[in-house]
Amino acid sequence: MANRLANEDSPYLQQHKDNPVDWWPWCDEAFERAEKENKAIFISIGYSSCHWCHVMEEKVFEDEECAAILNESFISIKVDREERPDIDKYYQEVHLLLNKRAGGWPTSIFATPQNKPFFAGTYIPPESNAGSIEGMGFKELTRLIAKKVAEMDPKLFENADEIEGFLNHKDHPKEATVLKEEFYKNLMLQAKNNYDTRNGGFSDKPKFPHSSTLRALLSIDRLYDEKAARAIVENTLDNMCKGGMYDLVDGGFCRYSVDEKWLVPHFEKMLYDNALLCDVYSEAYLTYENGHHLKIAKEIADFWYNFMSEDDLFYSASDADSEGAEGTYFTYTYEEVYTTLMENGFNNAEELCAQMSVTHHGNFEASKNIIRFENGEPEWFSDVKPLLQKLRLKREYPFIDKKVQTSWSAMMINSLFKLGAIDSTYHEKALKSLDALLETMFIDGTLYHTTLIHKTPKVEAFLEDYAFLSQALLTAFKYTQNELYLIHAQRFINKALEEFYDKGLWNFSSGEFAVKAEITDTTYTSSVSIMVDALLTLGSLLEDEKYTHFAFKTMEYNSYDLGRRPIYYPHMLIQAIRYVKGDRIIKTPKENIKRSAYELARIRYPFTLFKEANEEGFMVCGEKSCFAHTQNIQELEELIKSSL
After folding, report:
1. Is CATH 3.30.450.40 correct for 4-168?
2. What ranges do the domains of the chain cover?
3. With the CA atoms of 248, 250, 251 and 256 taken in that order, what torsion angle do they form, in degrees rounded to the nearest 10?
4. Parallel, antiparallel, or unpaired for β 74-80 and 269-270?
5. CA–CA distance, 172 with 163 (Å, rounded to integer)
6. Which of 407, 413, 423, 634 is the most exposed place for a label (fewest CB within 10 A)?
7. What are 306-347's pLDDT values in tens digits?
8. Which of 222, 559, 206 is nearest to 214 (CA)?
9. Architecture of the 183-320+401-581 domain
10. Which residues of 10-35 are buried (b: 16+ CB within 10 A; e: fewer)?
11. pTM to 2 decimal places
């Protein structure tokens, strides 16, 4: 018999509706029941494409003994972190406080009947395997907690009160620091210290794409002709798409690589990763004109349209697992690849298998292979790829989470406009997707965060939704000069300032969970940094200093850490440099912007905006004055450079 989650829209909650655990969704009634019955609270947070969330479901939540303990002594609450990122951010803070290290998913929280947390973990196996509390299995841990809560153990409740006090304490920066261009030198130093010179990227393993850092390094190279920045970016982008974390067959990047070579990923594909990487590869092409970078950017966009969209709206994620195992859909045996090649006239099948890293013993698990090219993708692969895609059609496709998320969708739309400056096909797609997103998520004057495709949204927007949507709208205005997009952006920025801003500090959410917004670029770019970006753009376009002032106050509030540890805040660092150096606005007729989108996008100065004007040719302007005029678009680069 299904539990209460059967009534929820969230695909993640739906995945748990048939567990023997008597799950509650997040609601007042659950917490009222816990206090009334004096039961401890267990909160489990995850998302639909999370591999270890599936493992914990199989090993713990589908285990009758584990379920019996929870049902007897706990009120158990399931949360989709993509649907309620405010709740997730709060409990990630709890995990960090209690464990002195970042958490992850699944997140496992235990709280008193009054919902004061006292224990936090991630994946907890069913059985104990060590004598310490960290090694305690789920059965032993839940029995111990149930006993202590039933006995009203004073130490447990004292600890919970103390933890709540820490969580309610707000730290403020020590002091403000003058914003300086030189901050970028610290970023370069810190990036070099973390850089893997052999494989690219900024760690050993596991390896995450760090899109914001790469994007910042691209801007630094554009500004300062920094050869080390270029080397890091190009080496990383080339290694990331050799195959593995990047799916050479269908396109699109997986969440991260478990090894240092970007070979073996967790196979889930997230919209935000692919949106940000589409932007990085597009920007790299505009900077260095490497055709392979453009190819990857297009393949990312095409994958999302071909596999992960409906009615011009984007799905949020696809799973790593299918047919009961991770990577089943994505990997191949030597025999099936060799046989397919021979049957289709490739008499050198053995040689082609070797080039694709396909072997008898496998490069993933026993006899399973991930398609990968160590020395660049050869031209013949365009003929082989359809055969590999055909083999995949025989398999079960991984589960797709069909949630539409405003923030993540806006990231992809923003990237598509950038890509559209190179290939107008993507410009038209971006326009359709932006209009579809606004129609779906902006209803009767209210912006919403998420909804299942073709459902009415219920969860109202958070700071990240206002920030990324405003950025996408301003990019749309840049390439279309449609003032409706500018008006929308101003409306959303004004609302965000009203709801989330407080003297340089930004909250991620208001209401039930007024969680402070992160300024670090972690899973994806900080919503605070994106809001600073949007504020600076709006201030320049409208010549309205109040927006620039709010951007400055935000950066000033965070300047102490920004100057010392910019590697954690790469996008905000670039905005600080932008504030110091100033925007350049190219004023020209709308027809010039449309006709010359590619040439304009290739201008090296990264803080260049466009604005329609009844000028013949191109006028180069700054904050309060114009510097130069030309009829020749090829002269713009030098005119901007000489104005700085």
Report:
1. no
2. 4-168, 183-320+401-581, 330-394, 584-643
3. -80
4. unpaired
5. 19
6. 634
7. 999 999 999 999 998 888 888 999 999 999 999 999 999 999
8. 222
9. Alpha/alpha barrel (1.50)
10. bbbbbbbbebbbebbbbeeebbeebe
11. 0.92
